[in-house]
Write a structure and sequence with these properties.
The complex is a heterodimer of chains A (294) and B (455). Chain A has 294 residues and is mostly helical. Chain A is 44% helix and 3% strand. The chains are: A mainly alpha (294), B alpha/beta (455).
Chain lengths: 294, 455
């Protein structure tokens, strides 16, 4: 960004908290006063703190949790305001975030937005391309893809509002669930169909000829199932590994049974065990236990 | 390097409605279901409302323009480089209108014949109001006005909730749905409120939960039907996606999936019975209105005598490049609306379908050199066989800086409220007169509950 002095009004400006920017203050200095005033507003700590907690830990943090994170924003312990390392440490190491009992608290957790689910998948299986360039395609398509693409939000308001609550039980309980604003029949279907392809084709279906317009095959991402395929003859061992990689070891007995049934029914030798892995990965990726991070 | 992103169709699939001002503790989460039963007025006929939301704030000043004499001169002076030349305006001859001669932006030429035939009406200077106000009150700072005027997200919320002075988790189309679904659509498995544009607060009711449809119709989760090797997956997949959960977020997710799986087959079957319709423009809005027309065609198969649709056009936030960009989106709007009207004629329901536009706000008359900035009141179109068209409703504003409705920079103080606009549509749709204040709790503050454009 660059300052253009001839576009700057030199008249006096009154902004928040009674702060006055005197007449004839330069544009650069005016901007500094305005930003410092905003930065030092007491609402910034709780606002940033609650937003980050919602993105990282849970949609409905307690006021006490937000207060502790705000205190870390206001003072990192050495008198410094706005030390983001201290803020993130406070968020992730807070007793509320570390409490194992929260895993079974029915009001706890946050919906992983589709892009995070997809990133979890790519990272769990060491996605890479031949060239090292990572090409992605039209992820924002709600019909055929996950309905979200990095840096491609539809407006400056991003993908969803922080205060969104879907009609019904959640709004009645006074809870917010921001990611549900982009969760509906269309996106649920698009995600389920997209992930079926991604899991089975190891994300390589873009290499089909019809996608050639999207650039060289060497830039297409593929995931690696080799470690999982080595376990395909032992469905329990396979699920143990996937539970660790994708679900932080939180898979319930009921979800495990459903997936185990499907994996065991799938012939072990189909694609040298690849199909068993693909189905297990897919069923985890669409399970509510995975989609809601606790 | 090559452009990583594939641009074509980007906006077409981004149908995220904005502005769901959905906070907890909505003050009137009363049991509207009971009121709905009381308002039941079984009617044999069919009716549909179609909201076309112009996302970003439509520039009303370049949509309908005073086109002659001193009125045009005042417009051109205020707009400077973003004024349309008179040669790009099509003269309108509305009945009973005595103001300065009006011209329609030529990009909307497809709407002109429908306006002339009385199928399209113009509602001028309508916007969000808490109560009627005067410019003197505004200037004195004593006017009660909606919170966060001129802000996209807040004013979309105010337009869509119809309650600009309170937090509301529901919108007026949703509350209309609460009052009419039970009476008119008994036995239907599909929501009365159908959106092509993602979750929006406008169609959110207290009992009404909107159904999302794609421009390609209802789409199936393939693996649920277990083709070929997927037979190993189908049953556990369906179970995982839909079985009851104790975590409330997981439970909500299974409800959405249950609706997606449960309605797909029924909607697909119903749509398959609809004869092909005349062609629609191959634009985002054209495709959205085409699936709306097909869902109207499927109304009997869906057991729906009332339908409420929400579609959305983007590209209206014209701070920059106003003339080319606005003309482009208006052309898409006019062409898609005209095709939609013809489709309702083909389906034999032209009298029964009313489409109407809404937007975040109007825009300031004063040009910024390349575009126009956020305003307040704006003009909107109502289209349908039941519309008393070729008329201008409301009070057409003075198009000049420092005019009698100018709250600064040519932003219009609305002279007709969203409440009055919505009430006129709700009454036509079948909401009982006594229930209009359930839909629009502030309605009693305004002079009328029927603007007359639907008789």
């Amino acid at each position: 960004m660059q300052m253009y002095a001839d576009h700057h009004s030199t008249s006096e400006k009154r902004i928040l908290r009674g702060v006055v920017i005197p007449a004839n203050t330069s544009g650069t200095e005016s901007l500094k006063i305005a930003l410092d005033t905003l930065y030092n507003h007491p609402n910034v700590g709780p606002f940033i703190g609650s937003q980050l907690i919602k993105r990282l830990v849970t949609s409905n943090p307690s006021p006490a949790y937000i207060k502790r994170v705000t205190q870390a924003f206001n003072d990192n312990g050495a008198g410094v305001r706005g030390d983001m390392k201290a803020v993130i440490r406070a968020i992730l190491l807070d007793p509320e975030a570390r409490d194992a009992a929260k895993i079974t608290d029915p009001l706890w957790g946050k919906l992983r937005e589709p892009l995070l689910r997809y990133a979890n998948f790519l990272r769990a299986f060491n996605a890479s391309s031949i060239s090292g360039a990572y090409r992605i395609h039209e992820l924002e398509n709600t019909l055929t893809s996950i309905g979200q693409n990095p840096l491609r939000a539809p407006s400056v308001f991003n993908w969803f509002r922080p205060d969104y609550s879907p009609p019904g039980d959640l709004v009645t309980r006074g809870l917010v669930a921001p990611e549900f604003q982009i969760t509906h029949e269309t996106t649920t279907t698009g995600y389920a169909n997209f992930m079926a392809n991604a899991a089975e084709q190891q994300n390589t279906w873009f290499r089909d000829h019809e996608y050639a317009k999207w650039g060289p095959v060497t830039e297409h991402l593929a995931v690696d199932y080799s470690a999982e395929m080595a376990l395909s003859n032992d469905p329990n061992a396979l699920l143990d590994r996937l539970n660790l990689l994708l679900m932080s070891g939180q898979m319930s007995a009921s979800t495990r049974k459903a997936i185990l049934d499907a994996v065991s029914a799938t012939p072990a030798d189909a694609n040298q065990g690849q199909l068993r892995v693909a189905f297990a990965v897919y069923l985890i990726m669409i399970s509510p236990e995975f989609i809601v991070q606790k | 390097m090559a452009n990583i992103h594939h641009h074509v169709g980007r906006r077409d699939f981004l149908k995220r409605a904005s502005a769901a001002t959905a906070l907890a503790g909505t003050p009137f989460a009363a049991n509207l279901l009971a009121l709905g039963a009381a308002s039941a007025q079984p009617v044999s006929g069919y009716k549909a409302l179609v909201c076309i939301f112009l996302n970003g704030g439509n520039d009303q000043s370049n949509t309908v323009v005073p086109m002659t004499g001193s009125a045009f001169d005042a417009y051109a002076r205020a707009r400077q480089s973003v004024a349309l030349p008179a040669s790009q305006l099509i003269s309108l001859s509305p009945q009973g209108y005595n103001g300065p001669a009006l011209g329609l932006n030529a990009s909307l030429s497809s709407l002109k014949p429908l306006f002339d035939q009385g199928k399209v009406a113009l509602l001028s200077n309508v916007g969000t109001l808490v109560t009627p106000i005067t410019l003197a009150q505004w200037n004195a700072g004593t006017a009660r006005v909606p919170a966060q005027l001129f802000s996209h997200s807040d004013q979309q919320g105010a337009w869509q909730t119809g309650i600009p002075d309170r937090v509301s988790a529901s919108g007026w189309l949703g509350r209309i749905g609460d009052l009419t679904a039970g009476a008119f659509n008994p036995g239907s498995h599909v929501s009365i409120a159908i959106s092509t544009a993602g979750n929006n607060v406008m169609q959110t009711g207290n009992s009404t939960i909107q159904y999302q449809i794609t421009t390609a119709g209802a789409v199936r989760i393939n693996a649920v039907y277990g083709p070929d090797r997927w037979s190993y997956v189908a049953a556990p997949l369906r179970r995982l996606m839909t079985e009851p959960r104790t975590n409330v977020l997981e439970a909500e997710l299974t409800k959405v999936a249950g609706r997606a799986i449960g309605t797909e087959s029924e909607v697909s079957t119903a749509l398959a019975s609809v004869s092909p319709l005349a062609s629609f423009p191959d634009t985002s809005l054209g495709r959205q209105l085409q699936i709306v027309a097909r869902m109207i065609g499927a109304r009997n198969a869906l057991s729906q005598k009332r339908q409420i649709f929400f579609v959305e056009a983007r590209g209206y936030d014209t701070h920059d490049g106003l003339i080319p960009d606005h003309n482009n989106v208006l052309k898409q709007l006019g062409d898609a609306m005209a095709a939609f009207y013809q489709a309702t004629v083909t389906l034999g329901v032209a009298q029964d379908v009313t489409a109407f536009t809404a937007s975040d706000f109007g825009r300031g008359l004063q040009g910024n050199g390349r575009g126009s900035d956020h305003g307040w009141g704006g003009h909107h179109f109502i289209m349908g066989g039941g519309v008393l068209g070729n008329r201008v409703y409301g009070s057409f504003p003075t198009v000049a800086l420092k005019g009698p409705e100018d709250v600064g920079q040519g932003r219009l103080m609305p002279t007709t409220s969203v409440d009055e606009y919505a009430a006129t549509l709700a009454r036509w749709f079948g909401v009982a007169d006594t229930d209009l204040t359930t839909v629009l709790p502030n309605l009693g503050r305004f002079p009328t509950r029927n603007l007359g454009f639907l008789g």
